[in-house]
Amino acid sequence: MAVNQNNLLKCFLLFLIIGVAFAQRKQENKKRPASNDEDVSTSSQCPEPNGYFADAEQCDKYYACSGGEITEKLCPDGMVFNDYSPDQEKCDLPFNIDCSQRSKLQTPQPSQHCPRLHGYFAHSDESICDQFYYCVDGKFNMIVCPAGLVFNDKTGICTWADEAKKKGCTTKDVFNFECPKVNETFALSHPRYTDPDDCQYFYVCINGDVPRRSGCKLGQVFDDSTKKCDWARKVPECVDWYKDQLSDDELYALENPTTKKPKHQPTPFVSRRKPMRPKKNKSEPSPPPEED
């Protein structure tokens, strides 16, 4: 009997040791990064029976799952898969998607001014900061940014030069203007300065050191004495600025816009029926007859 108990005790200890070793091995596997083989086996299966799922490495590749059947798909060249919802199959511009963790892309299919078939791309001449190309199916349209803005490669839109931080397109490169050095108190007021080449425009120095070009409306110029926009005829140094652009009558019309007449109001309805006399209350006595 004692022998059987010893054997049982040995078996129990053996199973306990094996169980502890298995648990430790499982914990180590969780901490260990997955190998490439494991990545392939995982990506070849549907995470859910139905839906659209991003590839783990390539930003423009994704998988469509239907009833557990997986199909590999690719976005049009220049676009990437938007994985915000497994219920939506959507390819988007890379400016809107974070591809930092899956940075691989398909081989480009370039054409004139289009490094890829679709997207927004900077001008090939790095010194041209305010022009870019919008490409669809490899065909381009050139777009010019509003005055004072440059194309931002990171966002795909026109922004201030200090926000774009693009080489060769700094505020100094774009404007050829530097904010004068001022004391800290005055700098906080975002001082304004005239544009030496254009009376209609002026510079606002953000916090005293970052210039941004702004402008007055048509017919007005920047008055350096008041630091405000005013009509050209009131600013001696810019009185003839619009001489070759607008006639005196046009300038007068801009300064004195005609007021619109109020719309005709319909005559209020007036009833022509005679007012009805109030009915007598039967409880009230009748007035006495008039004497002759």
Characterization of the model:
The chain is α+β, with helices and mostly antiparallel strands and 292 residues long. Among the domains are: 41-96, Antimicrobial Protein, Tachycitin, Chain A (Beta Complex), CATH 2.170.140; 108-171, Antimicrobial Protein, Tachycitin, Chain A; 177-257, Antimicrobial Protein, Tachycitin, Chain A. It contains six helices and 15 strands. Strands 1-2-3 form a three-stranded antiparallel beta sheet, with no helix packed on it. A three-stranded antiparallel beta sheet has the order 6-7-8, with no helix packed on it. The protein has a three-stranded antiparallel beta sheet with strand order 11-12-13. Strand 9 (150-152) and strand 10 form a beta hairpin. The chain is elongated, with a radius of gyration of 39 Å.
Helix and strand topology:
Elements: H1 2-31, H2 36-43, E1 51-54, E2 61-66, E3 69-74, E4 80-81, E5 91-92, E6 119-122, E7 131-136, E8 139-144, E9 150-152, E10 157-159, H3 161-164, H4 171-175, H5 184-187, E11 192-194, E12 201-206, E13 210-215, E14 220-223, E15 228-231, H6 248-255
Antiparallel strand pairs: 1-2, 2-3, 4-5, 6-7, 7-8, 9-10, 11-12, 12-13, 14-15
Short structural description:
It contains 6 helices and 15 strands. It is an alpha+beta fold and 292 residues long.
State the main characteristics.
single chain, alpha+beta, Antimicrobial Protein, Tachycitin, Chain A, 3-stranded antiparallel β-sheet, 6 helices, 15 strands
